[in-house]
Write a structure and sequence with these properties.
The protein is an all-alpha fold. The protein is built from 19 helices and no strands.
Length: 440
């Protein structure tokens, strides 16, 4: 590809930031409120883990500058069968987790309309979902334009709002000891719980590696962009969380499912909750659109690599993988129906835990693949030691996050893998090709 047509540093940084910032900013302050000050420590743990994973994905992309993401790296280290199940899991979880975005969107809509019944919420969520799917079916070029507009609209409020909130900041809201927070469990368990929740804000840290073949000087551009972008995301999340808590406190946040509307309502009572609700919905819909587009491209990339049956990658005249997008839409429906059957906080927190756990499992698998490839890629002993330590830290972080909710996560993981067995069996002759790169 001509260098003039490739992605530069600034464009890649925008992809890194845009792919990670989503509903977490508008949901996590309330979900973390029961943990009080320990929730802030959870942010520190998840930031360190996100940075380490960002560096690993940057190195993987630099050495394997191929479009596709995690399944490319796992396939290089462990072969095509492992590559298939990585692609399958990554595709499933990319749209299953998006149900959280729909739930959050409608929760904020209810601030404007008033209380909504569960049936009404499901109908509205379905309507939004199929509208986004239809936009993507119109073609990647049109979907890309919509994605750019929504990304700009969703980032601006998250930079402006903390500035406003800090004008009304009360440090007394943070005068709660860790002993009080952890009286029913040890600090390590509490940190693991909060790290699992806060890491939701960094899901998508690997997205910048997907277009590696279209990046100028990927060995230098990707590491810089992914590290700086992830650091910016961390700053945005932490500043927003601190400013929200500083205005209303932990107890008030525990009682709401729309924390930003609560904060703005306490500062500017008239119409502020409507403005915040609109902002939150734009953020969530923008991220939903981005992940819908991404999930279609994950399936199409897996077909291109010979891992999925060709029907998954069948394109319409506009160049959109229609079947993959429709499966994405219909597959998402059961998840937000289950959520509406449970209490908001317990249901959403449980769903977040499981979805984040499966993403973390994929990240851990990529980190293990990286360890396997280090000896092949680095000849200098000092570099090997440096990157071994980086990979070990990332794997340790993943294990730390996973162990808290390992049973339910493993059950869901097993279900997703079982669902992939018929697809694997149907396409087994292509998947079992000896030369992994032959279909690239």
């Amino acid at each position: 590809m001509d260098n003039a047509k490739k992605i530069g540093f600034l464009s890649l940084v925008s992809i890194v930031i845009g792919s990670q910032i989503g509903s977490g900013a508008f949901v996590l302050p309330s979900l973390l409120a029961p943990f009080k000050t320990a929730g802030l420590l959870g942010w520190i743990v998840s930031v360190s883990g996100a940075i380490s994973l960002a560096l690993i994905f940057a190195e993987l992309a630099a050495h394997l500058p191929k479009n596709g993401g995690p399944h490319v790296y796992v396939g290089e280290a462990f072969g095509r069968t492992a590559s298939f199940y990585t692609a399958w899991l990554y595709w499933i979880i990319s749209w299953a987790s998006s149900s959280i975005l729909l739930v959050t969107t409608v929760n904020y809509l209810a601030i404007i309309t008033g209380p909504l019944s569960s049936t009404t919420k499901i109908i509205i969520e379905s309507a939004i979902l199929f509208l986004i799917t239809f936009i993507n079916i119109l073609g990647i070029k049109f979907a890309g334009v919509i994605s750019t507009i929504l990304t700009l609209l969703k980032i601006i409020p998250l930079i402006i709002l903390p500035v406003i909130f800090f004008m009304f900041f009360d440090p007394m809201h943070f005068k709660i000891s860790l002993k009080t927070v952890t009286e029913n469990s040890d600090l390590l368990t509490t940190l693991s719980k909060t790290a699992l929740l806060t890491f939701w804000g960094f899901i998508g840290v690997e997205c910048a590696t997907a277009p590696a073949e279209s990046v100028n000087n990927p060995s230098k551009t990707i590491p810089r962009a992914i590290t700086i972008g992830t650091a910016c995301v961390a700053a945005i999340y932490i500043l927003n969380t601190l400013s929200v808590i500083g205005v209303v406190g932990f107890e008030a946040l525990e009682k709401t499912n729309a924390p930003y509307a609560l904060v703005m309502g306490s500062i500017f009572p008239k119409y502020s909750d409507i403005a915040i609700s609109i902002m939150a919905m734009i953020v969530c819909v923008g991220t939903l659109h981005a992940w819908t587009l991404t999930s279609g491209q994950i399936a199409y990339g897996a077909v291109s690599d010979g891992l999925f049956p060709k029907i998954f990658g069948k394109l319409n005249k506009a160049g959109a993988p229609v079947l993959a997008l429709l499966i994405t839409a219909f597959g998402m429906i059961p998840f937000f129906i289950i959520e509406e059957m449970d209490r908001w906080r317990s249901g959403l927190e449980k769903l977040l835990d499981i979805m984040v756990s499966i993403f973390v499992f994929i990240y851990m698998l990529c980190s293990i693949a990286y360890i396997v490839l280090i000896k092949k890629w680095y000849k200098e002993k000092s570099k090997r030691v440096k990157y071994y330590l980086l990979a070990q830290f990332a794997i340790t972080f993943c294990i730390f996050v996973l162990y808290q909710d390992i049973l339910s996560s493993c059950i869901v993981l097993a279900i997703f893998i079982i669902l992939g067995i018929p697809v694997f069996w149907k396409n087994r002759h292509n998947i079992k090709l000896d030369n992994y790169n032959s279909s690239m």
